[in-house]
Amino acid sequence: xxxxxDLDVNPLTDIAIxxxxxxxxxxxxxxxxxxxxxxxxxxxxPGKLLKSFTGRTKAxxxxxxxxxxxxxxxxxxxxxxxxxxxxxxxxxxTDEVYEHITFDDKKHISLASLPGMQKRTIITSSxxxxxxxxxxxxxxxxxxxxxxxxxxxxxxxxxxxxxxAASAIRNIHVKITDSxxxxxxxxxxxxxxxxxxxFEGLKKVEYVKELIKEAGVVAVPGCxxxxxxxxxxxxxxxxxxxxxxxxxFAFCKSIATLAAAAQKFSxxxxxxxYEQP
Length: 277
Ligand SMILES: Cc1ncc(COP(=O)(O)O)c(C=O)c1O
Prior knowledge:
Layout lengths: L1 H4 L14 H11 L15 H7 L6 E5 L11 H14 L2 E5 L25 E6 L11 H6 L1 H7 L5 E4 L2 H14 L5 H11 L3 H5 L4 H11 L21 H7 L11 H18 L5
Parallel strand pairs: 1-2, 2-3
Antiparallel strand pairs: 3-4
The structure holds pyridoxal-5'-phosphate.
GO cellular component, one term: cytoplasm
Organism: Rubroshorea leprosula
Protein name: Aminotransferase class I/classII large domain-containing protein
């Protein structure tokens, strides 16, 4: 770059190696500015959000309920985001795949439902989390590759947007994957018209409490994470220590890896006399 364009490029910090220009281009388009949330409750600081907007901001991306923190945005926080979108005339693109999985009485609120937001919000979601068809399960693949490929990875998702945006998304969708498989779309219709009890049954609060009690780990997502007394004291020294203890434990791993992780958690718990919430 120096020889060709007289540009100073730091090879350690200024380069991302991608799979061809196509991915580099796509990744560059998707690159964005992050607004960090404040631990321990992952609170949105209005000042930080507003500072991130400029005259060139076209859209903001919001993932709520959020993976991996479990944060479910409060109405007051969504109001701040909505107000900023309206003020800067921005679109909002939401990722709401965990919409039905919250572990307490804090119901997920879609940003689109706030005044003035439906006309500027693109909601994206899918069957993956609500119906446990997120991807391939290594154990099932090992036992029965064909069966697993069919039942655990449906890849049906959707964007719900004002007509002008939905039409543009459909045009791009045709170029990317052409269409979602028709039989799975039929199955999706059946799944999505499940009775309300099905969706209620996803809030396995007892299971999550058991996980915390027995294994000392918490499940993603859900504010259920931060219900310890410790997490309610954001400025105390104790809560700072609490922040340093975050560990991300992904379930989409081989059974051997999960067993090794469980063993390590158990050893750690015994070694540190971890105080149960
Ligand atoms: C927050 C979030 N959004 C989206 C996805 C992917 O969803 P899909 O399986 O529908 O592509 C995931 C999967 O891990 C996720 O955690």
